[in-house]
Amino acid sequence: METQEKQVLTASIDWLEFTVMDITVEKALTEILQLPVTEFSPLNKGRFGYHKQLKWVGGNIFVLYNDLSETTENKPETADRMGVHMMLSGAGCRQYEARQPLKKLLLFLTILDERVNFTRIDLAIDDRSDQLINFSRVHDAAINRLFTSRWSKWDELNSRRSATGEYLGRTMYFGSQASDIFCRIYDKTLERKANSEETTGLPEHWTRLEVIYKKDRAKQLVYHIVDRHVPVGTAIRGTLNQYIRFIKTPPNPDQNKSRWPTAEWWIQLLDGVGKLQLTIEKEQKSIDDMKDWLERQIAPTIAAVLTANEGDLSWLHEIIGKGAQRLSQRHRDAIAQYLLKK
Questions:
Q1: Minimal CA–CA distance to 46: which of 30, 22, 27, 70?
Q2: Which is it for the CA torsion 178, 182, 183, 189, positive or negative?
Q3: How far from each other are the two terminal CA atoms of the chain, in whole angstroms?
Q4: Residues in domain Replication initiation protein-like C-terminal (predicted)?
Q5: Distance of alpha carbon 331 from alpha carbon 317, whole angstroms
Q6: What are the φ and ψ backbone dihedral angles of 137, each rounded to 5 degrees?
Q7: I want to staple 182 with a disulfide (CB 3.0 to 4.6 A). Which of 64, 129, 175, 305 is the partner?
């Protein structure tokens, strides 16, 4: 999980959810997640329309799929079109990172390209001392309309203890939760206290800011991180810079808040980062990019199989032959560009 330090701030990927088409569940585990099949246990039922569900014994990673051998005669194609769905929760991202770099997983998903549908990616900034992202300060600014935003609405959700009235949870949402991108800010200390009796070492003041990216916005985010090498912290701050700005009242305010000065704490948080465009066309991978990926990711596996087969290449030729029948337009374009340069 990539992090970027900014005073007391840390930035991270806090949710990753996607579907891969035209793949078996075994290959999804071993080739995409690169985790042994033996480390996954079946759960009693599936969800999201899938009949089967596996959970990683090492943490909160869930894999949903349909067993095509068990589908009814009149619905096998429906099950096949659903692909294999993988979900890494916030804790799952951190647990997975202990075994495999998340960026390596994202790189592999960009290589698969049109076979991957991204459902959701969350980026988070944690302020464990409330120096910059202070929940009450953000809330007061929202109440007093001291912000400008491309998001047309904001909501708040609070829960309190009945007996004392003390807060059990405080959350703000900028943008609609039904949209493809929105921001969530909440009191992480309260959330941890509500979900666990263990509070040892828990910061007294801890606010988390998250941006949730869905569907095409999530896919564009991944290409920024992988192709353009944008750090996670820069990506989330660039998104915030594109969608919202907290301001302060000038000495002689006019009606146009776009001319009001930016709040100092917001300037410090963004730290001069530019706006992150999430509607750009992704960079097309060249043949050289594909060769580089093969060398870094697949070469050891090919060498192992080749050694075990005592140099026999027939199996490799068979795989290449099958792959040639599945070339996409993206692959054909890359081949044409490569041949033009020769």
A1: 70
A2: positive
A3: 39
A4: 116-320
A5: 18
A6: -65, -45
A7: 175
107 token code pair: 């790189």
239-293-310 Cα angle (round to 5): 155
Per-residue pLDDT tens digits for 119-142: 999 999 999 888 899 999 999 999
What does the pLDDT average to over 209-236? Answer: 94
Instruction: Using alpha carbons, select from 144, 208, 146, 210 the residue that is nearest to residue 174.
Output: 210
Q: What digits encode the pLDDT tens for the residues 158-212?
A: 999 889 888 889 999 999 999 999 999 999 988 888 776 556 667 788 999 999 9
In the structure encoding, which two tokens stand for residue 310, read together? Answer: 């005592």
Parallel/antiparallel/unpaired status of strands 244-246 and 207-214:
unpaired
3-state SS class at 262? strand
Query: How far is the C-alpha of 181 from the C-alpha of 196, rounded, in Å?
Result: 29
Give the pairing type, strands 52-56 and 61-65. Answer: antiparallel
pTM beyond 0.70: the answer is yes
Q: Which residues contact 39 (CB under 8 A, 6 or more apart)?
A: 56, 57, 58
Amino acid sitting at position 208: R
DSSP string for 58-87:
TSSEEEEE--GGGS-TT-HHHHHHT-EEEE
Pairing of strands 154-160, 147-149: unpaired
Query: Residue 201, class by beta-carbon neighbours within 10 Å (0-12 exposed, 13-18 middle, 19+ buried)?
Result: exposed
Residue type (1 letter), 147: F
CB 122 within 8 A of CB 211: yes
Beta bridge partners of residue 122, listed in sequence order: 15, 212
Q: What distance in Å separates the CA atoms of residue 69 and residue 92, rounded to the nearest whole number? A: 30
Rounded to the nearest angstrom, the gap between the alpha carbon of residue 220 and the centroid of all alpha carbons in its chain is 11
Query: Residue 6 gets which letter from DSSP?
Result: B
* Nearest Cα residue to 188 out of 7, 3, 10: 10
pLDDT at site 314: 87
Pairing of strands 147-149, 116-127: unpaired
Residue 133 three-state SS? coil
- pLDDT score at 337: 74
Helix, strand, coil percent values for the chain (each to nearest 5) = 40, 25, 35
